[in-house]
Design a protein that fits this description.
This protein is an alpha/beta fold. The chain folds into 2 domains: 188 residues, Rossmann fold (3-Layer(aba) Sandwich); 66 residues, no CATH class. The chain contains 10 helices and 10 strands. The longest helix is centred in the C-terminal third of the chain and has 18 residues.
Amino acid sequence: MMDAFVSNVLTLDNVARRFPGRARGAPPFTAVRNLSLHVDKGEFVSVVGPSGCGKSTLLNLVAGLDRPSEGTVRLNGTEVTGPSSHVGFMLQKDLLLPWRTVRHNIEFGLEASNISASERRARAERELKRCRLVDFADRYPYQLSGGQRQRAALARTLAIDPTVVLLDEPFSALDAQTKLIIQKSFAETIAGSGLTTLLITHDLAEAVAMSDRILVMSDGPGRVVEEIIVGLPDRSNPIARAAKPRAAEIVAHLFDALHIDNRLDA
């Protein structure tokens, strides 16, 4: 049984997460139930679903910030019991430290790991190049555009050399044009690094353009109810992918799967 788990970088097996009732005497609230999924090495998987279906709970469980009430979460075959340096977690906000330069923000996550100053500097330089931030290394966050800040946040995430990168709607605060540019930049960087990636998004076109597979979650308690193989070439170029007829077909299917027309009419 263990060999099946080791073949996947990330595995959730029949996971449930219950929380205490929000009011005194209220029954427990179940965020996810019977949630099972896997992500293979180097794969980019997106998770979509209605608001309240447990997408954020899923990421917290994978990151080790929360523990399942039932079931198991495994990373490289080992059960996740707490935060791990093997998981990079990038939130909607960049959370850059305003008193640090871009370079020192990238190094921040390495300082708690007792990594030497020379190694921190080398990793920061590597990520500055990979995320195309060399010319902005000594700037402070207030001196950056929104897109540059997101690239800096990605560089900080990649500097810890994670096995899995978790992306929680990292492009949602960007304007439409900047969003396309940063999506392409992220896609190139992640594809080039070979990282295993799990993206949470409400943007269905984004999910199609960037992913190998898309997992559709049900209304809460959330569980995976459909898996879609994207089947489009060149994941490093989401703009070109989004223009393919297949992309439009998948987006239309996702609209139907999530009953979005019914929600708009409600």
